[in-house]
Write a structure and sequence with these properties.
Layout (H helix, E strand, L loop, with lengths): L10 H17 L13 E7 L6 E7 L6 E5 L5 E10 L6 E10 L5 E8 L3
Antiparallel strand pairs: 1-2, 2-3, 3-4, 4-5, 5-6
């Protein structure tokens, strides 16, 4: 079970998540600087209504961008972080966010691309 008391024990995994999110942005040829920062997270515990398992959810807010990271009881991670920059190869699109997921040692990811409203 993940709990608020485990936050400090998750620092290495959290730093890896932050780096993985930045790498997803860099794969597109973009940069969001040193964001997101592990130290910028606020945490709460959430209980899944079906499984009754407790997950630890961290939220980045109050800065230029918003994002969340969820540490599931089975060790999996899901994180999403806003990018909100024009897509470098598609002028009609922008990069809304990047996501990473999976076990900490095998995080995979992708970008969320959206079209500008016409």
């Amino acid at each position: 079970m993940r709990s608020l008391s485990e936050v400090s024990a998750l620092t290495a995994q959290g730093e890896a998540v932050c780096a993985a999110l930045r790498r997803q942005v860099e794969k597109l040829g973009l940069s969001i600087g040193d964001e997101p920062l592990w130290a910028g997270l606020g945490f709460v515990e959430t209980v899944d209504p079906f499984s009754q398992e407790t997950s630890l959810v961290g939220t980045w807010r109050g800065g230029q961008r918003y994002g969340t990271v969820t540490f599931f009881p089975d060790g999996r991670i899901f994180a999403e972080y806003q990018v909100l920059l024009p897509h470098p190869a598609k002028p009609e699109c922008y990069v809304e966010a990047v996501q990473v997921w999976g076990p900490p040692e095998q995080l995979r990811g992708d970008a969320v691309i959206a079209e500008y409203a016409r």
